[in-house]
Design a protein that fits this description.
Elements lengths: L2 H30 L19 E6 L10 E3 L3 E5 L6 E2 L10 E5 L4 E5 L6 E3 L2 E2 L4 E4 L4 E4 L2 E6 L1
Parallel strand pairs: 3-4
Antiparallel strand pairs: 1-2, 1-11, 3-5, 5-6, 6-9, 7-8, 7-10, 10-11
C-alpha cells in the first residue's frame, strides 16, 4: 500500500474509534437520566400491608392519584434521587422531610425545606409531628395521605 492509502485507513480507523466512544458515552448518559418510578398498587389488587403514603394530589411528580408508597423504618423524602421516596416536583426540596418509625408511631420532621411541610394544613415550623393514620401531609404542592 502506498503511504497515502495507509494514512487514509488510519484516519478512518481513528474516526470509527471516536464514533464508538461517543456512542458508548451517550448511551451511558441516557441510562442515568431515567427518572425512577414509584410502584403503585392498582385498584383491582389487594392493598399493601403496613404503613404507606397514598398520593392525593401529585402536582408534577408523574405519580398517579391513589399510588401507594410503602414505608420502612427511616426514610427521607424529596426531589433528589438519593431519597427513599422521590417526589420529582419543583415545589419539593432536594431533601425535604424525614419520616421515622418510633414506638409511639411515625414521626415526620421537615429538613429545612423551602416550601415547608404541612400536616392537615398546619406547618411543622421546626417541630416534628406524630402521624397516627389518616393525616394529609403536603410537601410543597404534593399532597399525600398517611395510612397505617
Amino acid at each position: 500500500m502506498s503511504d497515502s492509502i495507509e494514512l487514509m485507513v488510519l484516519r478512518l480507523a481513528l474516526l470509527a474509534i471516536i464514533f464508538l466512544f461517543l456512542l458508548a458515552a451517550a448511551l451511558s448518559m441516557r441510562s442515568g437520566l431515567r427518572r425512577p418510578q414509584a410502584v403503585a398498587v392498582s385498584p383491582g389488587r389487594a392493598r399493601a400491608a403496613g404503613p404507606r403514603l397514598v398520593v392525593v394530589s401529585p402536582a408534577n411528580t408523574g405519580l398517579p392519584v391513589g399510588a401507594e408508597l410503602a414505608l420502612a423504618g427511616e426514610m427521607t423524602l424529596g426531589r433528589d434521587t438519593s431519597n427513599g421516596i422521590v417526589l420529582g416536583d419543583s415545589s419539593v426540596s432536594g431533601r425535604h422531610a424525614l419520616l421515622q418509625q418510633t414506638r409511639q408511631g411515625w414521626r415526620l420532621a421537615d429538613l429545612g425545606s423551602t416550601n415547608g411541610t404541612l400536616v392537615n394544613g398546619r406547618p411543622l415550623d421546626g417541630r416534628a409531628a406524630l402521624l397516627r393514620g389518616g393525616e394529609q401531609v403536603a410537601f410543597g404542592a404534593v399532597v399525600l395521605r398517611f395510612q397505617r
